[in-house]
Amino acid sequence: MRWPAATLSVVAASLLAVGMLLAAHGCGGTQSVATGHKKVAIQNAGSDTLVNVAQAWAEEYAEVGPEVSVEVSGGGSGTGIAALIAGTVDIANSSRHITADEAARAKQNTGKEPVEFVVGYDALAIFVHPANPLDEITLAQIADIYAEKGRYTRWSDLGVKLPGKSGDKIIRVSRQSNSGTYHFFREAVLGKKADFRLGSLDLHGSKEVVELIERTPNAIGYSGMGYATPRVKMLRVAKQPGAPAILPCVESTLNGSYPIARPLLMYTLGEPTGHVRQYLQWIYSEAGQQLLGKCGYVPVPPERRPRFDS
Amino acid sequence: MTKRGHREIIVEWLIESVIRLCGISAILFVFGIFFFVFREGGAVLFKDFKFGEFFFSTAWYPSSPSHVRYGTLALLAGTFSVTVLAMVIAIPFGIGAAIFVSEFCGPKLKETLKIVIELLAAIPSVVWGFIGLTVLNPLIIRLFDAPIGLNVLNGGIILALMSVPIIVSIGEDALKAVPDSYREAGLALGATRWQLIYRVLLPAAKNGLLAAGLLGVARAVGETMAVLMATGHAINIPTSLLDPVRTLTATIAAELGEAPVHSDHYRVLFVIGILLFLITTVVNLTADLIVRGVRKK
Lengths: 310, 297
Prior knowledge:
The structure holds two protein chains of two kinds. Chain A is an alpha/beta fold.
């Protein structure tokens, strides 16, 4: 094989250039270690429900503790806990409790017990399109819409007549089967052992659920109360037929009258220390909890906050 | 002098090996992926795997608390329905565009068209999915009075738009490969342009056009993000174009990230990966054999 000399020299030169670049990079690396101005990074991943708050906390905390950078990613509670088990995150965000099996695997893998922190509360709101005349619903009715053996497939089954021409089929909007929201909804509404009926639209995020309902008059869906927009309607939910129907809000979540509410959790491996501990302490401070409230969730009342005395 | 000669030989050998490695790397990667997918999925295949349930049940309950079931029939139906619809739309359009580009338009328009079609191919699939979600969804609800606009129709249209560029460019190559003497002979016999295309060019380029269609199919079967967003992602055997469905690829994309590593769910998702791999391999291989048939002639 014969190559023109010009091509050869170009290739050789580029190889040389790559080599020099690599060498330069190596030098740069050692220098930055020597000067030691590196930020401490806290890895924080998990629940999509919590991701907005976690992001807001991380941004705000950059001003409180500039030597620390909190790196937040979502992906769902399962993702966060999986990362905790693998030991790749410092704090896992979750909108469901860790299972005994997961805790055992974390212990086995990393040698540390996961520690749970309730950092706020979330109420799962039931959303419909604003054109839907329905205002309140019972837990049993929601279960009849969503569960495998449920009876309701049309809005007329609930005595609702939808305006518009798109028929009265109920479009069930749900979440992908690994999301914490999906599991919590199943536990709180369908029952621990029940399954969802197939054929629901299984979306990949809390925000997507609300966005789809905005555009779909026949839809019903569940998502965090914080994701409500003016273009969807939240339903009042009653525990039993005849019981008062309650709108999800801060008060009804904290006093337990709203039936579909849950704690928002953060997990660390072992009792937190150092920067992670300071970060959690700040999250429980007035500033941190106010930020959570601004994102549409319910802050932890002072008497329920953990105390970090050492 | 001799020293310089030595160096040249070494450099030449070095560069030759680097380039050879680049060439072989494709094979290495394919087999590496093949091995990885089989290793991850294989464990569950040889451990009382319910093939009957996997292929013939619609019940996909990977995280049921009481009764876990892995039936992919509805997912297969979803992939199949969306792909068929996409091809019904894309093949006539794509072949038509290929004929126009290759036979009818002038050189200037041809260049512009080719650039624009390539641009169409360069649009990321997530953008297509977004168009399905925000533009087509309300449009379908309004036009068809459908309860939901995320359905087979939406996914099929989006996939068709995504596969047209492939069909056009391969179809055009196939038409270009027909010798000019065929065209001249046809015209000399007094054939009209339409007769020339219908009776001479299409039969002559038939294998290449078939391959174009099959590669379009492979593209549609393998597409993930766009169908995840546009089809509604609902486990459902469609009975009309306006029913939402869920595809094999979208299921993997939505669930793999959160399935605990090495759990049964995770492994079954890899088995779906193997299934997809087999489908696209068969389609690609067929296309390849057909194209080779063309060359032999």
